[in-house]
Amino acid sequence: MQNFFQALVSGAAVGMIYAVIAFGYQLTFATSKTLNFGQGEALMLGGLVGLTVSSYTGYWIMLPIVMAFGLLQGSVVELLGVRQAIKIKSEAGWIMATIALGIIFLNLAENIWGRDDLKFPSPLSEQPLSFKGVNILPMEVLVVIGAVLLMIAVEVFNRKSIYGKAVVATSNDRDAAGLMGINTSAIITFSYALSSMAAAFAGVLVAPVTLTGATMGSALGLKAFAVAIIGGLSSGMGVIVGGLLLGVIETMTGLYFSTGYKDVPGLILLLLVLSFKPSGLFGKSTIKKV
Amino acid sequence: MLRIENLVAGYGKVQVLQGISLHVPEGKLVTLIGSNGAGKTTTLRALSGMIKPESGKITLNGTDIAGLPAFKITRLGLAHSPEGRRIFPTLSVADNMVLGAFPRLTGARPKGDVQADIERNYDLFPRLGERKEQLAGTLSGGEQQMLAMSRALMLQPQVLLLDEPSMGLSPKLVEEVFIIINRLKREKITMLLVEQFAAAALEVADYGYVMENGRLSASGEASALKNDPAVRAAYLGQAH
Ligand SMILES: Nc1ncnc2c1ncn2[C@@H]1O[C@H](COP(=O)(O)OP(=O)(O)O)[C@@H](O)[C@H]1O
Ligand SMILES: [Mg+2]
Question: Is the C-beta atom of B34 inside 6 A of ligand 1?
Answer without folding.
Answer: yes
